[in-house]
Amino acid sequence: MKLAMIGLGKMGMNMARRLMQGNHEVVAYDLNAEAVQQISKEGASGAASLQEIVGQLAAPRVVWIMLPAGKPVEETISHLRELLQPEDIIIDGGNSFYKDDRRRYETLQAAGIRYMDVGVSGGIWGLQVGYCMMVGGDEAVFNFLEPVFKTLAPKDGYLYCGKSGAGHFVKMVHNGIEYGLMQAYGEGFEILDASEFADSFDYAKIAHLWNQGSVIRSWLLELAEDAFSKSAGLTDISGFVQDSGEGRWTVQQAVDTGVPAEVITLSLMRRFRSRQQDPFSERVLAALRREFGGHAVVKKKT
């Protein structure tokens, strides 16, 4: 199949490569001209604009967007709506909010353009091992696109999840679970590091050990092993942890539906805490302990 890939970042570039390895034809576009030149050297057809992309595709045109959620996706879809024809297909493979998918689906359907939301997980390892994909939209369009999904995914690595929005909804919850898992691993290693035995621990070896048949084995532990192998105490990085937005959406969904998602919620709050230095709330706690119990406080250095 011939399709376009808009967005040649860490995910989009390698997805284009995997598609070409599967004998699909890729038309590539990115605001970064160097990225377009790079993938063109590897066999893709480069494009300098969205108009050029549309001109290089035959009906029904398939355009896959791998851009940051929000304004970049919104503007790109708005522009494509003016360029594409009925029965053409837009795929949003980024981390968009599922309610935005529902709105876009209705707007594009009015113009006869098909819209699919595909949650993609796999990170920088996807080129090698494949991408896990959660697909939402019309099932007939999913069936038409299945050869593309089959190329990008490992065995059993893609699923039609339901109507428009369902793909990104499942990916949203997936990322919320990821927050909780990562937090549990982080806390576990911190307990190890705070113990009397810490001097004898090799965290890379412990992560490797736990992946040998234990009930907490996972790919995240493999990544932890790699990270500890590069820096035993992770002294080369700060504890500042960003969030992509999907954790927030998962927590909000839990609130809206009355689901007590304590672990995911707390893991999101810890990410917020990681970005603060000397948070005001902690100073309030220290002051209250001093006031009611005469407990000592640590004075700020001037």
If you had to describe this structure to a student in words, what would you say it looks like?
This protein is α/β, with parallel strands linked by helices and 302 residues long. 53% of the residues lie in helices and 13% in strands. Strands 3-2-1-4-5-6-7-8 form an 8-stranded mixed beta sheet, sandwiched between helices. Strand 4, helix 4 (71-83) and strand 5 (89-92) form a beta-alpha-beta unit. Helix 8 (166-193) packs across helix 12 (262-274). The longest helix is centred in the middle third of the chain and has 28 residues, at 166-193. It is elongated, with a radius of gyration of 23 Å. The mean pLDDT is 94.
Which strand order spans the largest sheet, edge to edge or round the barrel?
3-2-1-4-5-6-7-8
Overall geometry: elongated
Helical stretch count?
13
Number of strands: 8
**Cα Rg:** 23 Å
Helix content: 40-55%
| Low-confidence region ranges | none
SSE pattern, N- to C-terminal: EHEHEHEHEHEHEHEHHHHHH
* End-to-end CA span: 65 Å
Average the pLDDT over all residues and give the rounded result. 94
Please describe the biggest sheet, giving its number of strands, its sense, and whether it closes into a barrel: 8 strands, mixed
Beta-strand percent range: 5-15%
